[in-house]
From TrEMBL:
Compartments where found: Cell membrane; Membrane
Record keyword DNA-binding present: no
Role played: F(1)F(0) ATP synthase produces ATP from ADP in the presence of a proton or sodium gradient. F-type ATPases consist of two structural domains, F(1) containing the extramembraneous catalytic core and F(0) containing the membrane proton channel, linked together by a central stalk and a peripheral stalk. During catalysis, ATP synthesis in the catalytic domain of F(1) is coupled via a rotary mechanism of the central stalk subunits to proton translocation. This protein is part of the stalk that links CF(0) to CF(1). It either transmits conformational changes from CF(0) to CF(1) or is implicated in proton conduction.
Organism encoding this protein: Tessaracoccus aquimaris
Protein name: ATP synthase subunit delta
GO terms assigned for molecular function: proton-transporting ATP synthase activity, rotational mechanism
Length: 265
């Protein structure tokens, strides 16, 4: 575990001890938006020359009466942690908002639905060049991008999915799909699951998916979440990636291996 991972784990543990809900996540996202637009304020809240208690006190004075005491407590935990930069601190605060939203979804029995909807949305953006370009464009305003995504999913998804999709537009992980991927990894980690990224030439039916999941659970030695991508270019067979392990048995891969062997003769 890296020092950064250890710091995140310590902060996660601290925030998990606070009684939060979906409303807390919404308040934290509002604070993130405020800090994104106030460089001096975010520098003050992450100033390494100030004591952790002083930074938490500043956050409490600034936010008192504007958000709940619970949200202030979470912000206090975040700003007391050491950060390499003000922007990293804001990203850390948003990360806690995402985790709180996912925990609220899990408590309501909707986490699996949210994961499936987020994955489907990321694939939609990935497969639509115009939509992806619009969400990447620096010339397109953030609120315009959020409106674009909101229209795409309006009335079709769980409220937490809509909330997290709106946050992902900010693309702190470089692109919208990569940011969604980071959310899905958080959800899997929280549920003690591994993510199996699967590519097939044709959609699997329910029985095929169930058999595949059972085999992967046995292979991974624990719970597995399936992320299935249909790509006709693989021709046939299946490709599975779990963590750094890739299991490749597609026709396209075998043809590519044959081509490489011929080249090297």
């Amino acid at each position: 575990m890296t020092a950064r991972d250890a710091a995140n784990a310590a902060l996660d543990s601290s925030v998990e001890g606070i009684a939060t809900d979906a409303a807390t996540a919404a308040e934290l996202f509002a604070v993130v938006d405020l800090l994104d637009g106030q460089p001096m304020l975010r520098r003050s809240l992450s100033d390494p020359s100030s004591t952790p208690a002083a930074r938490a006190g500043l956050a409490k004075r600034l936010l008192a009466g504007k958000v709940s005491d619970t949200a202030i407590e979470v912000v206090g935990s975040v700003v007391q942690s050491p950060w390499r930069s003000a922007n990293a601190m804001v990203g850390g605060l948003e990360r806690q908002g995402v985790r709180i939203a996912l925990r609220a979804s899990a408590a309501g029995g909707q986490l699996e639905r949210v994961e499936e909807e987020l994955y489907s949305l990321a694939r939609t953006v990935d497969s639509d060049p115009e939509l992806g370009a619009a969400l990447r464009s620096l010339a397109y305003p953030l609120e315009g991008k959020r409106d674009l995504v909101a229209r795409l999913i309006s009335g079709k998804v769980d409220p937490v999915t809509a909330q997290l999709a709106s946050r992902a537009v900010r693309a702190r992980r470089r692109t919208f799909p990569l940011t969604i991927e980071s959310y899905l990894q958080m959800a899997a980690d929280m549920a003690g699951q591994k993510i199996a990224r699967i590519t097939v030439a044709q959609p699997l039916d329910e029985a095929q998916e169930a058999r595949l999941k059972a085999a992967l659970v046995a292979q991974a030695g624990g719970a597995v979440t399936l992320q299935i991508h249909v790509d006709p270019k693989v021709i046939g067979g299946i490709s599975v990636a779990i963590d750094d392990d890739v299991y490749e048995s597609t026709v396209a891969a075998r043809l590519e291996d044959a081509r490489r062997q011929l080249i090297n003769l």
